[in-house]
Every structure is written in C-alpha cells, then in structure tokens.
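Suppose a classmate hands you a notebook page containing two proteins, each written out with its sequence and a corresponding row of structure tokens. How would you begin to make sense of it? This section walks through that situation. The first entry is reproduced here exactly as it would appear on such a page.
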Amino acid sequence: GCMTEEGVKMLLSVSHRGLEKQPESGDVVLYTWPEVTKMFHKKKRFIIKTLPPEGAPQLVSFLFNQRRAAKEVWKMVLEQHDFFRLEFPLQPSKLAFLKLGSKFRYS
C-alpha cells in the first residue's frame, strides 16, 4: 500500500483515464493523463507533477513501504502515460518480431 505525506493510507490505481488516488476516508481524486506532466521516483517515493487546467502546477507525492514498489509503480505509470498520450502509432522496425519486452529502458 501507499500513503500520503501526512501518513494517510490510500489506494492508488492506474487506468485509461489517468491516475486515481482514493484515501481510506475520502473521495477519489483523478489526475488525467493530459494533466500529468512529469513523474519520477526517489527512494520510497513516487512523485507526479500535474498541471490542472484551472490551477497552478503542483507536486503530488506517494510514499511506499519499499523502494522497489515505488519503482514498479513509476514504470507502470510511465508506460500507461506514454501509451494514452500517443498521437499516432509507432512504426514497427524491420526486426520488431525479434524484440521482447518494453521499449523503455529503466534506471
């Protein structure tokens, strides 16, 4: 599971609409893919930078129990963000049938 900076436990989900967070006692907050401008992980934290249509940019931080969990969420969100923001399909290379895995290289 993950928590907010204030220590409130929450659920975090990734969908075709964007990134959703739902605190244990609260309403669902949706960060749509066009609003999410940057995402990164640092140790046990997964952080997104959002630019809401009606407001100023903000950083939203999620704290995980393990560093590996934050990195896995970052990888998943990165791929979903790129896929749903894709304006046209990528042209397959001539050797595409030999490639396995993701086109992304993670650090």
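The notebook's second entry, a different protein, reads as follows.
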Amino acid sequence: MEVQREQMLAEMRKYEENEGSWKRDAKKWAVTINAALITERCIDKAQLAGMGEEERISAILGVTHLHLDGAGLDRIENLEIVSNATHMFVQNNNISSLPNEFDWLTKLTHLNLAHNQLEKIEHLTVLD
C-alpha cells in the first residue's frame, strides 16, 4: 500500500505541475487509469482546492463513479486505486482487452464499455 500511495502522490504532483490538466501530457496520463486522470475527471475542483495530499488520496480512493468516457484510455489497469467504484463509464476509448484485475471491483454494479476496440469480453465475474 505504501508503494501505491507514493505512486499516487507522484502522479498528483505531476498533474499539478501540468497546471491541473492531464491533457498536457495526454500520451502518458490518458493511456490507463491513474490518480491524475481520476483527479481531473472524477473529483470536484472546488473540493480539491482545500485538500492536502492525504485528503486527495482519500478522495481518489473513495471515488464511486468513474467518468472516464472519451479519455483516450488504451487499457484498464491500476484498478486497486478505484476499488470503491460502483459505476464505471469507460465508453468511447481505445480499450482492446480487459484485465484480470476486475476482481478488485467487488462493489461494481454498472460498467459501460461501448465503442471500444474489444473483440472478446472476459474477466467480468465480479458482475455475475
């Protein structure tokens, strides 16, 4: 968990260096799910302004609705940082396969994968 925390802090610092926009470094940030992308797309900006680093990590880990549609995602990974997700909107991306990591999402009830590059859907036993 400490390694994950340090990685999230590094991503948040990089996000802030890019003036709060993952789009400035889209090739890196928009490829997979990460703290910067979640911060940009899923956390209220007014709340972020008054948060310290630990509060931001808690906010990221507490996200229940992931609105990552059209974010340029090539793959889904790092799902352990969104284990509280109940809704995941990842339509209109470039996702071609699904990872085994969906086991992290025990609370997931809604998943939108429309308009991606998927040829086969596997590893979704969590939604059974």
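A careful reader of the second entry would note: The chain has a mean pLDDT of 81.
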